[in-house]
Amino acid sequence: MSVSRTSNQDGNDLNSPGNDILKPLNDSGVKRFHYKTILIAGMGFFTDAYDLFVIGVITALFTFYVPFAIPGYVFSFHVGGNITGLTGLALISAAAIFGAVFGPMIFGRLGDLFGRKTIYGLEMIILMAGAILSSLAWSFASLVAFRFILGLGIGGDYPMSATIMSEYSNVKSRGRLVGTVFAMQGFGLITGILLAIGLLYAIPTNLGLAWRLMLFAGAIPAAAVYYFRRRMPETPRYTLHVQGKTKETANVVSDLTGVSLKASQTGKADGKAEVRNKGTFLTFFTSYLPLVIGTAISWFLFDVSFYGTGIDTPTLLKSMSLVAAPTLTQVQHLMVSEQYSAIIALIFTIPGYWIAVALIDRVGRKTLQYSGFTVMAIAFAVLGLDPALIGLGAPFVVIYGLTFLFGNIGPNTTTFIVPTEVFPTAFRTTGHGIAAGTGKIGATVGVILLPALLLLWGASGMFLFLAGVAAIGTIVTLALIPETKQVTLEETSRENLAESLVTGSPSESAPAE
Questions:
Q1: Mean pLDDT over the full length of the chain
Q2: For the whole model, what pTM was predicted?
Q3: 11 against 339, higher pLDDT
Q4: Hey, how many other C-beta atoms are within 10 angstroms of the C-beta on 12?
Q5: Choosing a second label site near 410 at 20 to 30 A (CA), which of 21, 78, 192, 322?
Q6: What's the rounded Cα separation, in Å, for the pair 40 and 393?
Q7: How confident is the model at residue 289, as a pLDDT?
Q8: Per residue in 306-330, pLDDT tens?
Q9: Those residues with Cβ within 8 angstroms of residue 323's Cβ, 6 or more apart along the chain or in another chain
């Protein structure tokens, strides 16, 4: 599946609306405003990752320190003589992720209806409120409810930050720029691990304060970027393709790139907003359905394993530590598991993000995605087929770490980037929101299902299940995901098709495939 285009001798797409107006932006190098956008958007993802993954440490802590009544099972059933179901700890782990199912779909739709500028930053308010309230939780029910609120804000950040960075990017570096925003997740993840280690060392006898400080800390970076997000200007592509404000678009492009645009270069006349805003959700959804399915299902499959293993890693490693060194205290076992988590993050997880940033505009999105899924499938299969490897030794750390390394090089990064490129401007945050929300359904499934599989099938069976999930991800990528490297957003999203959907003018009948 590849993106086709019609170009003149200069390489300009003759079918793309607003080609002349956006050409300086597409052709520009990486400018100061790109770095500013990376910082403002990236700090949101730093916060998102911190808040989502720090809960793994806390639920591991709650296995031996219980601050309030936590049900063993919210509901349970018998399978093969064993009792399984949704545990209270699993629900605490999944609450924010479940909120992140709805956040991207809500904010994604609002971003298309009212504009990026109008909505951007509001998700940070919800995130801050959820983090602060979670740190003050007085019961199991209140913690689950407040983590759900937190998740709404986290999820809302996905389509907004991704789309804003993509719509400001040039063609040559778009993958690298959007990928850099996403790579800030790695720093948020390791910050959570290091803060947990520090607090466990500093106040091992005051665990009640420790877990509350871990949750409260998630509000600090969100508060730091809220002001700057509210001051971000509207993206040139939204003002052009949705609002029809060509002169305003030309002025913004000129300000950002330093290229002066003549009146003849501003293309279509103003006043198209009323016509363009007649496009309905159903119209775009059905017209881009193959891409909606491809981006959503591949993200779903990846998040089943990434969040299931990522959030449950502290508990998994703690249980292995108990077997390997039974004489340690519970707090010491948790510190050991966090140290191993830090090693995995530093050697595998964080480098994976930056390798993806370095390769994505050269190797391409599709290649990285199916390659990443394939290596994950092989690594999980090795762990599942050789149970002797499942321990705290170096072989386990290396093979388990490879799933994070190649997951980040491939589908973790690409599933975030591709939805910003294959949907038209009037449906871009909506499409990305559907993909991100579906991904978080997969994350919820992973967080809830993997502990049950670990109980029923053991670590070996759980890893074989994950190998199958990753293998399906490879198939979905090859069948439904297009390659979008080094092509303008107007071409990758078939913006001319989007125009025809709202104006009724003749155009191509299918999106890029």
A1: 84
A2: 0.87
A3: 339
A4: 16
A5: 192
A6: 40
A7: 93
A8: 876 765 555 555 555 555 556 667 7
A9: none
User: What are the residue ranges spanned by the domains of the chain?
Assistant: 26-260+267-503
* 463 token code pair: 């890893």
The residue-averaged pLDDT of 4-31 equals 61
d(CA 317, CA 337): 5
The two structure tokens encoding residue 205: 């006898």
| Rounded-to-integer distance, Cα 487 and Cα 507, Å | 19
The amino acid at 376: M
Nearest of 305, 313, 306 to residue 337 by alpha carbon: 313
The span from the CA of 6 to the CA of 13, in Å, is: 6
User: Minimal CA–CA distance to 452: which of 29, 69, 76, 17?
Assistant: 76
With tokens 């016509």, the residue in question is 275
Q: What would be the CATH architecture of the domain defined by 26-260+267-503?
A: Up-down Bundle (1.20)
Q: Token pair 């052709």 is at which residue? A: 27
The CB density around residue 347, as the number of other CB atoms within 10 Å, is 15
Cβ atoms of residues 405 and 127 within 8 Å: no
Per-residue pLDDT at 486: 92
244-258, pLDDT tens digit by residue? Answer: 888 888 888 888 888
> In terms of C-beta density within 10 A (0-12 exposed, 13-18 middle, 19 or more buried), how is residue 286 classed?
exposed
Q: Which of 194, 111, 101 is nearest to 448 (CA)?
A: 101
